[in-house]
Amino acid sequence: MPETQELFALTQNRWVWITSAAGRRAETLLKTLLTSIRATAFRLTFLPWILALTAGLALVSVNVGLDVEERLGDVRANILAKPASGQVYIAEIDAKSLEMVDRWPWPRAYYAKAIEKLNDAGVTLIAFDIDFSSRSTETEDQLLADAIDKSDATVILPTFRQRASNGQHEFVESLPIDVLQKNAFLASVNVSPDSRGQLNRYSYGTTTAGTTRPSLASMIAEVAGNIDQSFAIDQSIDPTTIPRLSFVDLINSNDLPPELRGKKILIGATAIELGDRYPMSRFGVLPGVVIQALASETLISGTNLGDLGKFPALLLSAILMLVCITTRKISSRGLIWIAFVSIFVLVGLLLLVEYLRLFTFSNVPAFFFLSVYMLSQKLLTTTTALKTSQYVNEISGLPNEAALQKIIDTSDFGYIAAARLVNFRELLVLTNRESRHDLFQNLASRFSFLAQSESIYHVDSDMIAWLVKKEYTSNIPGHFDTASALLQAPIMAQETKIKVDMTFGISSQTLDESKIASEQALASGIRWTWHDHKFDHAIGQKHDLLIELDQALEDGHLGVVYQPKWDLSANRLDGAEALVRWYHPERGIISPDIFIPLLEQAGRIDGLTYHVLQLALDDVASWSGRRPGLTCSVNISATLLADKDFVHRAIAMVEEARVDNAQIVFEVTETATMSDPERSAFALKLIQNARIRVSIDDYGTGQSTMSYLQRLPVSEIKLDQSFVKTMTTDNANRVMVKSTIKMAHALGFKIVAEGIEDQPCLELLTRYGCDIGQGWHISKPVTPDVFEAIWLDSVMEEARLSA
Ligand code: C2E
Ligand code: CA
Ligand code: CA
């Protein structure tokens, strides 16, 4: 197939091949327009990522976010909360112990006594967090030294790091006095709070002036680590579960609890008066000795996890997002969603590795990266959407007027065609936003082959437009004949079939002109017209046709024709439908499809309806002698059912006529019953009470179901022509017709089929049990004279049918 050729749709039942080089140019233009917006968007795809990664790295380097880090740590600690091991006891010098002696530092004999008692209880280790770096009395010091010497349990005494008194920058280690040191182990109790004074980390040991010393907790837990390294104190351990005994009870009691056997004891001050307190992120201010115990517990439980730091999570999430971005299939919403979920995955991952005691890492820079990414990606999507929407109609998704204008401005085009929906108000009732989207999309695809580059533009709420394909410019009348023909079959709007009526306008100059022309066509009662400057002056008076209509009513230019309705089971005439005709002196016969919508929109359809009804009543009355019981249908516009005056007057007209009310049928469309259900139900009730029958016209093209109609006083349903005409060839329509007939009968409705165009169709309908048929095959609408002459005499009608 040559590249420049495309297969286009049907004109006069023929598939035609059309070469379209000019069309290609315009198509390229439109595509460039829309894709350039999308291309910019694609180039910008990586921008949020780069921005976010920079932000994440910046966060790492300036080291902010410590607070967030700790908040999150506390949350995890809350989730993983556990009690202490019970291996370490605190013997606390509390307020109660201080009352014992009002002297501080205490006589060292107390400590000696404590060591003895604890040895008796069978403890394995006694650690002091108490300063022994200065002398007391010689006897007291000796007493304690002896106790340490005699102790079976390991005794640990603390060393402190202090600033040297001579120099500002040097540190010295202050040790316990010599006599005490002899039989004890020494361990450092130094702690180094962070920049905010909080104490959340603890070291394995310290080096002061060249001497290295393990920390107290390392000694207690018997866990060695790199002296220069620290670990996070495990704040999921509840400090209140560390068993404590008061120092005073320890030295006074004669039988210490047996659980102490084999345990380790940490002796230190908890009394507020003695100071030595530090804040922790999760627990607030705690005594130093409790923090030493917590650090020991951390080492005992093995939760002194290695810290992988801030990079792994950040890099992991950056790589993940990069992979997702380059996978073109993921939408921008999808990317935001993935970033969002990643945050939770990282939280879960950290919890898991901490729970499994593998290691720990920092999530904060990764969170920051992901959040910045989500925000900037969202911003990008919104701005792109905003840009695209400049050129797209938001209801239909078709390119809009701005897009068409851009093409008009930049390419050489032939003609601009505009099409105006005549029954737009009815469409608003029958459709919602979603189904209107479908309607316009389907309308566009039906019309697309008429247009350059196949583009149909949705220019106003009730108007579409296109650039006429070069191939058609020599035959504009043919172009619009095709366009009108395309509207014969209803258009799908989701589940609903909708009949669309349009008038067309064309101009070689501007879009506005072709829009005006489509109005002019409507106002003149014609299908399409060229833009005519003469009309521009008179365009304000689009009432032209309306004014002419008034005159036509007066002059008797509006008449009716009758189309027979055939009783299919009895095989005889049932009656007729009265259809209005305008015999215009200059323009010939004007189709009701054009002027009825105009009158409806102007709210002036009542006058015409009274006129038609009166003509029909007069005719039926005059025919009653020869054809008693002949029925006559009259079309009642949707808007009229809600008009109280109309309903009363129309009923009165029927009452006054010399016909049986039951001979008259009011045909109303489904729309009529749906736009104002309460009022129309009331009107239908009045009509029914007057014994006038009601028929639902064009059934199947609206939205109502039969069960809905069953609640209304309706006696007849009139199947729309679009199903009937095609039922012999279209399987789906045949099924629809057959089942509708069945259902209508089950619900007690009479069923009429209109649009019977051939004998097979008539026979099929008869076989399906359809009550009444109407259509060109039986007869086209005819003037009253012809109707009277041919159809009133039953002999004639039989002759005609068998002919
Ligand atoms: P409708 O009520 O659905 O009328 C049926 C239309 O189908 C008529 O067109 C009729 O001529 C046409 N028709 C009948 N049999 C066949 C067939 O076998 N094949 C085809 N293709 N067409 C067939 P018409 O007279 O042009 O009327 C068009 C519409 O104008 C009517 O549709 C009705 O909605 C409206 N209309 C006509 N007269 C009046 C009137 O007095 N008052 C109101 N309010 N509306 C009217
Ligand atoms: Ca009708
Ligand atoms: Ca109809």
Task: Report what the structure shows.
With 803 residues, the chain is an alpha/beta fold. The protein has 4 domains: 2-25 and 33-39 and 390-531, Alpha-Beta Plaits (2-Layer Sandwich); 46-77 and 308-388, no CATH class; 80-301, no CATH class; 560-797, EAL domain (TIM Barrel), CATH 3.20.20.450. 46% of the residues lie in helices and 20% in strands. The protein has an 8-stranded mixed barrel with strand order 23-24-26-27-28-29-30-31, surrounded by 6 helices. Helix 2 (47-62) packs antiparallel against helix 11. Residues 1-23 and 537-543 have low confidence and may be disordered. Ligand C2E is lined by residues 563, 579-580, 591-593, 596, 609, 612, 635, 637, 697-698, 721, 754-757, 774-776, 781.
